[in-house]
Amino acid sequence: MTRPPRPHIVARVGARVGAWFRALPVASKLALFPALTAGALAAMLLLTIALGLAGERRLARLGSEYYPTVQATMRLDQLLPAIERALQDAVGTGDAEHLARADALAREFERTRRSAATAGSGGAREREALGARFAAYYAAARAATVRLRAGEVGGAMADALRDLQGRHRRLRDALAARARADQTAMTEALAAERLRQRLVWVACLGVGTLTVAGLAALSRVGTRALTLPLYDAVRAADRVADGDLTVELPEAGPDEVGRLLRSMARMVANLRDGEERLVHQATHDALTGLPNRVLFRERVARARAAAGGGELAVLYVDLDDFKTVNDSLGHEAGDRLLVAAADRLLRATRGCDTVARLGGDEFAVLLRGLHHADETAIVAERIVRALATPFRVANADARVAASVGIALGAEAPEVDDLLRHADLAMYAAKQAGKGRYRRYAHSMQAALLDRIALERDLERAIAGGELRLHYQPLVDLATGRIVSAEALVRWPHPTRGMVPPAEFIPIAERSGLVVALGRWALDEACRQAAAWSHARAPGAPRVGVGVNVSGWQIQHPGLVEDVRAALARHALPPDALTLEITESALLADTDATLARLHALRGLGVSLAVDDFGTGYSSLAYLHRFPVDVLKIDKAFV
C-alpha cells in the first residue's frame, strides 16, 4: 500500500495562512487590506525619497513640502478603520470605554485632516468637503452604535446600517481620491525637478501604481467576500421582520458574523415555537384541549374537499340538563364535568375521528371514511351510553345525558348546511325526550321554520292580547269550598287552534318572550282575583290566585317591581296572591334568587315550590328559602 504524497511546502503554508486568516475577527480581516495598501504606499514613498536624496536641493525642499501632506493622508486612511473597530468593540462588549476611544480617534482624524489642509499642497476645498463627509459619517455611525448597544433590531435598524455602509463607501472613495491626488501632485513636482532621472521615475511610478491597484482590487474582492454573509444576514432579518419564519440562514463561520447568524437562528426557532403555541391557542379549547369551532369547521371543509375516502358525517352533541349542574354544584364542578365528558367522547369515538368543543356544553364529532350511513348510529349510540353514566364531581354524582344529532355530508351542499343539519337533528333528539340520537331529515327544516313562525305569532299574541288564562281550582276537601285557583296560560291561535303550553312555553323561554308572557299572566291573574273579590257575597271567604313564575322571571331584576305594580294596579291584597316556582328555578344563581324571594316575601305574597322532587330534592334548600307551600310532584303521589 503506497502512502499518499505529502502536499507541497507552498500548499502547506498556504493552508496554514488560510486557516489563520479565517480565524481572524472580521474587523481584523477588513483592516488587513488597508494595512497592506498603506504598506505598499509607504514602500513606494520610501523609494521615492531615497531616489530624491540623490537629486538636487530642490528635491529635498519639495519633498519636505509634500511629505507631511502624504503622511497626513495615510494617517487618515489608518484612523478610519481604527474608528470602525472601536465602534464595533463598543457594540460587541457594551463597554463605553470603546465609544470614548472612537470619539478620541475621530477628533484625531479631524486634526490630521486640518494639518493636511494647511500643508500647502493644494486641494483645500476638497479637504474641507472630506471633513464634512467624515463628520456626517461618524455621526451616523455613532448613532447606529448607540442603537445597537440598546438592543434595537428590525427594519429601521437594517435601513440605518445600509445607509451607514453607503456613507462608509463614499468616505473611503473620497479619502482614496484625496490620497491619489496628493500623490499625483507630489509625483509631478518631483518629476519636474528630476528631468535627468525621468526613466527611473517612470519605472518607479509604474511599479507602485500596479502594486496599489493590485492591493486595491484584492481589498475590494476580499471586503466583498467578508461582508457578503453579513448582507445575507441582514436580508434574512428583513424577511423575519416581515413574518417569514421559513427563512434559511447562511452557514455560520467562527467570526462575529457567524455568532450573529447563530443568534438569529435561535431567535427564529423561538419565534417558530411561539407561533405554533399561538396557533394552538387560537384553534383549541382552553378547558378541554379539544379543537374549537374554528378548527372543527376547517377540518370539515378539508374532509369535504378531499377526494375519495368514503362518506363523512357530523355528530352534534349537547349535554342535557348541564345548566342544572352549574346552578347546583357551581361552575368549577361544571368545568370538571366538561373535561370528563370530553374524555368520554374521545374514548367513545374512533381514533381517526375529530372531537371538538363548540362552546358551552356543545360538542361535535367529525366522522370520516364511513362505508355505510348506519355506522354513524353505532358511534352515536356509544356516545349516548358513555355520557349517560353519572359523573363524580364535587363529591356528588352529577347525572347528565347527551342529545346527539347526525348529519351526513352527502345531504348538505355546504359546510354551514352540514353543521346546521346536525344542530337541527340534535334539537329533534331533545324534543323526543333527551338522552338519545336522531338523524337529520328534511322535515326537521320545516319544523324549524314552523317554530320560527310560531315564535313570531307568539310575540304578536302577547302584544295583541290573544292569550287566555284558565283557572284550576284548589278545593278544601273538608268543606268542599274553593280556596284558591291556579292560573294556566292558554293560547287559542287564530289558525292553528288551541296551541298546547308544552309547545309554546319552551319557545317563549328560548326566545326570551317568557318574561313578557309572565308579566301579562301576573297582571291578568291579579285583575281576575280582584274581580272575584269584589263579586263575592258579603261574609264569603276570599278566593286567592296562584301564578306560575318561570326561572327566567326569577332571575329578571324587575320581577319584584312587576308584582308590586300588579297588586297596586288592581288593589289586590298581597296575601291573595301565591307565586309558584319550580324547584330547578330555585337552584339557579342561589344568592341572587334568595335575595329576590325575600323581597317578594316582604311584599306579603305567598311562595310555593311547584313539582318538588323533579330536581335534586334537597330539603336543605327548603330551610334557606322563605317557602310557604310545598307542592309534591305527582310522581310521588
Question: If you had to describe this structure to a student in words, what would you say it looks like?
Answer:
Strand 2 and strand 3 form a beta hairpin. The protein is elongated and about 155 Å long. The chain has 637 residues and is α/β, with parallel strands linked by helices. The chain has 21 helices and 14 strands. Helix 7 runs parallel beside helix 8 (256-283), helix 10 runs antiparallel to helix 11 (331-348) and helix 14 (442-464) crosses helix 15. The strands form three sheets. Strands 8, 9, 10, 11, 12, 13 and 14 form a seven-stranded mixed beta sheet that branches. A five-stranded mixed beta sheet has the order 2-3-1-6-7, sandwiched between helices. A two-stranded antiparallel ribbon has the order 4-5. It has helices at residues 9-23, 26-53, 57-93, 96-117, 124-149, 155-193, 198-241, 256-283, 293-305, 322-329, 331-348, 374-388, 415-431, 442-464, 501-511, 514-535, 551-555, 559-569, 583-586, 590-603, 619-624, and strands at residues 311-320, 354-359, 362-370, 391-393, 396-398, 401-408, 437-439, 468-475, 482-493, 497-499, 544-549, 577-582, 606-612, 629-632.
